[in-house]
């Protein structure tokens, strides 16, 4: 797939693109610290839509008039290498359009490809702790915050994950927290990422989730690289059927606060399959 681009550069001076997007956020928390069983596979195929008409400036105010639309199709894959080691992969195809201050940029093609490995390092009762390391191989559309479409390089991420299951009013529930350091390519600023998820099963085949995701860009040594910050909330549910082997998910997300990022809103539809 190719990239179509017009007027890039100035359009990104005060605007940053969301990298993983809604689908990535959803999966990140649900996969969590828990490993896959040896030989087991889970795939989550999704399509998501995002749009924004405003962007946050350097003071955290939504003062920037922009036009942003994004459609993404992606597949998130988890494979249990052993009962302790899990392989994670996520390819995606994207269509992104962005306008700002009279400039326009658009691209169609592959997004960054994630390839990670997760290791269960501690399990006691209902609590688990894991460590994860991964690479993000650049595609020809979105490759990171404050990167023009089609630009960017190889990035690395190191993540700590902790999860615990419990009961609420006789129903199953879980909580998951994650903290990550992402080493970004070229002159982009590195990032600290964190997430928190609470899941609740009001019925055995229905999972409701509330999630929060934050990104904090570390100061860059280059004056032309703006520091970013981002807080996104997401709420959704998954209906499982076929004895839990399949599921349909719908989720909605909104960026509530940021610095030098867009204020996007989006919806994701996903198909879960386990085998």
Structure description:
The chain is mostly beta strands. The protein has one domain (10-274): Lipocalin (Beta Barrel). The chain is 4% helix and 61% strand. It is built from one helix and 14 strands. It has one helix spanning 21-31, and strands at 41-55, 64-80, 85-90, 92-100, 103-110, 113-124, 127-137, 155-168, 171-183, 191-203, 206-217, 229-241, 246-259, 265-274. Strands 1-2-3-6-7-8-9-10-11-12-13-14 form a twelve-stranded antiparallel β-barrel. Strand 13 and strand 14 (265-274) form a beta hairpin. The radius of gyration is 18 Å and the shape is globular. The model is unreliable at 1-30 (pLDDT under 50).
Supply the CATH class.
Mainly Beta
Spatial strand sequence of the major β-sheet: 1-2-3-6-7-8-9-10-11-12-13-14
Task: Output the number of helix runs.
Answer: 1
Succession of helices and strands: HEEEEEEEEEEEEEE
Q: Portion of residues in helices? A: under 10%
Measure the end-to-end span. 31 Å
- Report the mean per-residue pLDDT as an integer: 85
What is the CATH H-level superfamily? Autotransporter beta-domain
Quaternary structure: single chain
What's the alpha carbon Rg, rounded to whole Å? 18 Å
**Largest β-sheet summary:** 12 strands, antiparallel, barrel
Structural class: mainly beta
Q: Tell me, what's the shape?
A: globular
Question: How many domains, as an integer?
Answer: 1
Instruction: Provide the β-strand percentage band.
Output: over 45%
DSSP, total strands = 14
Poorly predicted parts: 1-30
């Amino acid at each position: 797939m190719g990239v179509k681009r017009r007027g890039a550069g100035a359009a990104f001076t005060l605007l940053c693109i969301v990298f993983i997007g809604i689908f990535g956020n959803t999966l990140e928390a649900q996969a969590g610290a828990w490993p896959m069983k040896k030989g087991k596979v889970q795939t989550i195929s999704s399509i998501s839509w995002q749009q924004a008409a405003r962007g946050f400036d350097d003071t955290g105010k939504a003062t920037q008039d922009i036009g942003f639309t994004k459609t993404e199709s992606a597949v998130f894959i988890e494979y249990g290498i052993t009962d302790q080691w899990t392989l994670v992969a996520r390819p995606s195809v994207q269509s992104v359009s962005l306008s700002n201050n009279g400039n326009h940029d658009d691209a169609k093609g592959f997004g960054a490809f994630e390839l990670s490995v997760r290791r269960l390092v501690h399990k006691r009762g209902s609590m688990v702790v894991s460590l994860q390391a991964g690479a993000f191989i650049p595609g020809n559309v979105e490759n990171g915050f404050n990167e023009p479409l089609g630009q960017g390089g190889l990035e690395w991420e190191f993540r700590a994950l902790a999860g615990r299951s419990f009961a609420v009013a006789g129903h199953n529930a879980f909580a998951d927290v994650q903290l990550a350091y992402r080493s970004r390519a070229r002159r982009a600023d590195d990032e600290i990422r964190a997430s928190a998820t609470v899941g609740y099963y009001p019925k055995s085949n229905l999972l409701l989730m509330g999630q929060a995701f934050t990104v904090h860009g570390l100061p860059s040594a280059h004056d032309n690289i703006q520091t970013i910050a981002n807080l996104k909330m997401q709420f959704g549910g998954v209906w499982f059927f076929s004895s839990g082997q399949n599921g349909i998910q719908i989720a909605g997300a909104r960026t509530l606060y940021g610095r030098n990022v867009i204020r996007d809103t989006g919806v994701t539809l996903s198909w879960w399959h386990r085998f």
